[in-house]
């Protein structure tokens, strides 16, 4: 029995065939240490890496491919920005209630070390919307140094008004870091329009690349202090990192195979028409199917224009962990139970005790799988 | 014309077929977010990761597979140790003259930030040996907090007396970090015998895994402060990292495909007989071949028992960059020219101006390739 994979918010799976094929081909044909050699294979690897920067720069409509910085993960990209900014004691940092631990834990560390002040962006549970008026009032009182917002929640899929938040924040002189781990590749992202300072991406989610590459696109002139320092294959006589991006933040051997997979994923994406619309259709079907069971309670909004295909629910009579185990062991369905590394989201959603069951759809899910899921719900509840 | 690849100290290439095959299979069959789900595929991925920890623990004869911590690179592992130790102003840190920028640059940053004191381990250029008597005298004067030593130089292949250095350092209460990026997989490493506190490895060099995974094996009871913090798929309600290794230092989605490749590489290695001896035979042939050209000057010792198959040389009449370009463009030979990210090594070797040409051999080099290289030298010099 094939697995029905509903954990695409953790990582999209499977990847397009061309991604696997490209990774294997590049590993075999020029899986060397890119840009460290100067010989044919190393140059070819280096060119592929820069081409991938260009693909990303184009995707987000930014000015310079050199501002696309690769890190081994979105987590490391977020750490690199948060610890690379010159934050000092007393700085006011705002964050959304939907932040992942890859933001919350660095912020907590900064608070302990530097005594920064942390403020949660106000959220209206009734309308299930960010409250930007209240946010502006808070900015007036506490001049912001930085605001961090997940472009979309990995718990309930809610898309944040990143352009509006950036606009207000900039009015008060604060920088904005968007965590686009869940969004880039699925939602259109135009950095000229959003105008945030840092946009972090994960290669292995909606960009359909492999785990092993993420990064940050820098959209201002400010130079981050490198968090990780080491060999760069350039300026080797210097005991500090190169001055310019991307080398400044890219210590260690670049992961040519993962970047090649990401390159193939982005090219594949560019050939798909209306991937967002397709996934939203799946989402509508999914919400309709589970809507027939009064025992299933969706947490958050069901407005498919305001969310990604990431749905948190509770199943009456079961803990999230129980239902996940049942779905896995009896029906080979992969979903995720718990807090999904975003504990504060559950505080405002009222699901802190056991978290939620999360079903997250991807391009390779089918309507048939979702209808099958409905049949299984019949088995469970009738 | 096939490339003759002599840049194995940067990354071994090619990898054994089974490494490519395993990576592709794992990516396709269970390239999911390991240990984050709890469903079948995620569990299978998690088991593979822990099995790889066990393979490494066995390889270095350490007590606990949980002390094997994976990072995306050796660079990040070194940063994690150096910034994770609780170093304070006035601490005395010793380092070998052969350290890579992945050690030198973090040390420089610590010096700037914390005002630690840095001391180079004394080296006798005449005997081409570490001077441990002098080192002990320095330790007596400046109580060591930490000593960092590359197990083998990535410039001239010299193997460091890591057991002796650790013994003396421990006598004076200092911790020892060994950078085994060049060595693990090729030299036998027994942590019970060496007894260092931290042993860093690179997956993509002599372990024949891919770029994208390295790590540190912790060999003491001390808990490092996490440098990178974020989601761990565990203890998600906590705003700090899990207390215990390995989770404590492993934020972000584990790179299951790279770890699977490393797993296959280590298993492949365990089936090879006398890989060190085979490579030393190649090295002897290589040194014999270039020994016929008085125009080629080997930097460092030619004692094949004291070095890895990593040779730095200078070619009369050419800068290292010129000869590397010629070898690449006219003969399709991949070697590396410059400082090899180890500027202090060139200071004591007297090759700071342009660095050296480095030829580094691996398991997949053949005697025939080396004899071919000899013919090419004829072309160049006669």
Description:
Two copies of one chain form a homodimer. With 382 residues, chain A is α/β, with parallel strands linked by helices. The first copy, chain A, is built from twelve helices and 15 strands. Chain A has helices at residues 17-30, 40-59, 74-84, 101-114, 132-141, 162-171, 191-194, 256-271, 275-291, 320-331, 343-349, 367-381; strands at 4-5, 68-71, 92-95, 117-120, 123-124, 129-130, 144-150, 175-179, 198-202, 214-218, 296-299, 310-315, 333-334, 336-338, 356-360. In chain A, helix 5 packs parallel to helix 6 (162-171) and helix 9 runs parallel beside helix 12. The longest helix of chain A is centred in the first third of the chain and has 20 residues, at 40-59. The mean pLDDT of chain A is 96. Chains A and B meet through helix 1, helix 2, helix 3, helix 4 and helix 8 of A and helix 1, helix 2, helix 3, helix 4 and helix 8 of B.
């Amino acid at each position: 029995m094939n697995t029905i994979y509903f954990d695409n918010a953790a990582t999209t799976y499977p990847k397009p065939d061309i991604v696997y094929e490209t990774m294997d081909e590049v590993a075999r044909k020029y899986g060397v240490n890119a840009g460290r050699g100067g010989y044919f294979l190393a140059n070819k690897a280096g060119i592929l890496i820069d081409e991938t920067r260009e693909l990303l720069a184009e995707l987000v409509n930014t000015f310079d491919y050199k501002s696309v910085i690769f890190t081994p993960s979105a987590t490391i990209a977020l750490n690199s920005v948060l610890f690379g900014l010159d934050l000092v004691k007393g700085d006011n940092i705002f964050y959304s209630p939907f932040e992942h631990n890859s933001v919350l834990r660095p912020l907590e560390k900064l608070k302990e070390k530097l005594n920064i002040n942390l403020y949660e962006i106000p959220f209206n549970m009734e309308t299930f919307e960010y409250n930007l008026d209240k946010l502006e009032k808070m900015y007036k009182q506490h001049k912001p140094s930085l605001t961090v917002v997940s472009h979309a929640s990995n718990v309930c899929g809610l898309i944040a008004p990143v352009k509006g938040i950036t606009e207000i924040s900039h009015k008060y002189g604060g920088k904005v870091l968007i965590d686009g781990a869940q969004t880039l590749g699925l939602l259109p992202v135009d950095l000229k329009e959003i105008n945030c300072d840092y946009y972090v991406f994960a290669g292995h989610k909606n960009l359909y690349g492999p785990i092993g590459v993420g990064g940050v696109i820098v959209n201002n002139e400010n130079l981050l202090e490198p968090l990780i320092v080491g060999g760069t294959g350039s300026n080797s006589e210097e005991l500090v990192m190169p001055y310019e991006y991307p080398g400044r933040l890219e210590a260690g051997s670049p992961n040519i195979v993962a970047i090649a997979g990401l390159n193939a994923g982005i090219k594949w994406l560019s050939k798909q028409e209306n991937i967002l619309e397709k996934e939203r259709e799946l989402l509508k079907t999914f919400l309709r199917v589970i809507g027939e069971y009064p025992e299933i309670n969706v947490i958050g909004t069901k407005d498919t224009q305001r969310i990604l295909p990431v749905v948190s629910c509770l199943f009456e009579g079961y803990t999230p962990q129980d239902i996940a185990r049942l779905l896995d062991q009896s029906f080979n369905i992969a979903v995720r139970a718990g807090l999904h590394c975003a504990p504060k989201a559950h505080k405002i959603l009222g699901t802190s005790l056991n978290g939620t069951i999360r079903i997250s759809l991807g391009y390779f899910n089918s309507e048939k799988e979702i209808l099958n899921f409905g049949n299984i719900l019949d088995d469970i509840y009738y």
